[in-house]
Amino acid sequence: MVYESESVWEFEMAKNVTFGVGAAAELGGVVREFDADSVLVVTDPGVSEAGVVDEATESLAPDDYTVFDEVEPEPSVEVFDRALEEAAAVDPDFIVGLGGGSSMDVAKTTSVVHEHGGDILDYVAPPTGGGRDVPGPGVPTACLPTTAGTGSETSPVSVISLPEEDLKVGISSRHQRPDVALVDPGLTVSLPPGPTASSGMDALSHAIEAYVTRRYDAKPAPQDRTDRPDYNGRSVLTDQLARTAIEHIGDGLRDAVNNGEDVEARRNMSLGSLMAGAAFTNAGLGATHAIAMAAGAVHHTPHGVTIALTLPEVIRFNATSAFDRYAEIAELLGEDTSGLSDDEAAEAAAVAVEKLAADVGIEGGLSSLGIGPDDVDHLAERSNALQRLLVGNPRRVTREDLEGIIERSL
Ligand SMILES: [Fe+2]
């Protein structure tokens, strides 16, 4: 058969994006639009204690909502089960995810599993789960991010930890994309410097990996549109989003960490994170995320910090396959690449990322997270198993290549 390459790209995000300081106050209006009078708010204790739940629910009638605030970082399947039990008790006609990626992920999955029934693991891909497709939309959902961030407010994915098996699995379905993303930079003002730094570096990596990932037409055409992968490659649209995201994050992250109340910096970060999320959830990711997901599962390392410490060596490894793109990234991060050779310009991107991470307090290599030389082999093996991420990496990457990247990142 003659090879036929893909000639089409698709793009999806939340049905409605409402952005700006004050957007959270429109939650009541959104809930009225959906004619809902029983709302389940899914959040975590930190957000609740910081007063952010009160702030975000001010526009809701007190009798109309119930708060479930038991979400933990890197939530386990038990957390998802408890949220589902709460939904069974409340029978909500609207669900709100308020917090970082964890709370938003739990909200999105509760929305579809409450609507369609079954267990959480039924919807996870085999061999861990039952591989059941989400058959249709869930309970209408709005997500309000309090970090900048994971991009979960527009994404179709939720990540579930199985700590006893040292595994992280996911549910991916277009029906998990929230109906409304209410992105209010004001909700991120109380986020402490550490999480501001790590979530911001995660957002930067989403934009960078989406910008260099393989192009949509560098794969075979699908038999049917339903066979097109969720990560369908970079396109002119994801490129624009990624470029603007890199610029905004480069402009905003140091100031947002240094002074949380710098609203202009927070606005840059929220916008950058939103755009990076919209870019990568359509285009795809690469080796940085494969290594960080594996390290998160095996060593329980925090996602954003692991990402920040791995990204520079992935850039150096990938440079030969995307010199021009990395040179542009260096420029977007404020480096002057005029007069530099291709590899010097790509190196400038790696150095710019390292400098940014160090300036916001993230340095010391993966060894600072407790990963040592003896762990490299197993971590490379586990990273190599994440082919759905590696398939988008601009340079073909083998298990031995992953070992090298991890070793140089220690
Ligand atoms: Fe990430």
TrEMBL record:
The keyword Repressor does not apply. The keyword Repeat does not apply. Residues 15-185 form the Alcohol dehydrogenase iron-type/glycerol dehydrogenase GldA domain. Residues 237-409 form the Fe-containing alcohol dehydrogenase-like C-terminal domain. One of its GO terms (molecular function) is hydroxyacid-oxoacid transhydrogenase activity. It catalyses: (S)-3-hydroxybutanoate + 2-oxoglutarate = (R)-2-hydroxyglutarate + acetoacetate; 4-hydroxybutanoate + 2-oxoglutarate = (R)-2-hydroxyglutarate + succinate semialdehyde. It is an enzyme of class 1 (oxidoreductase). It comes from the Archaea. Its EC number is 1.1.99.24. Keywords: NAD, Oxidoreductase, Transit peptide. InterPro entries: ADH_Fe/GldA (IPR001670), ADH_Fe_C (IPR056798), ADH_Fe_CS (IPR018211), Alcohol_dehydrogenase_Fe (IPR039697), HOT (IPR042157). Belongs to the iron-containing alcohol dehydrogenase family. Hydroxyacid-oxoacid transhydrogenase subfamily. This is hydroxyacid-oxoacid transhydrogenase. It comes from Halopenitus salinus. The lineage of its organism: Archaea, Methanobacteriati, Methanobacteriota, Stenosarchaea group, Halobacteria.
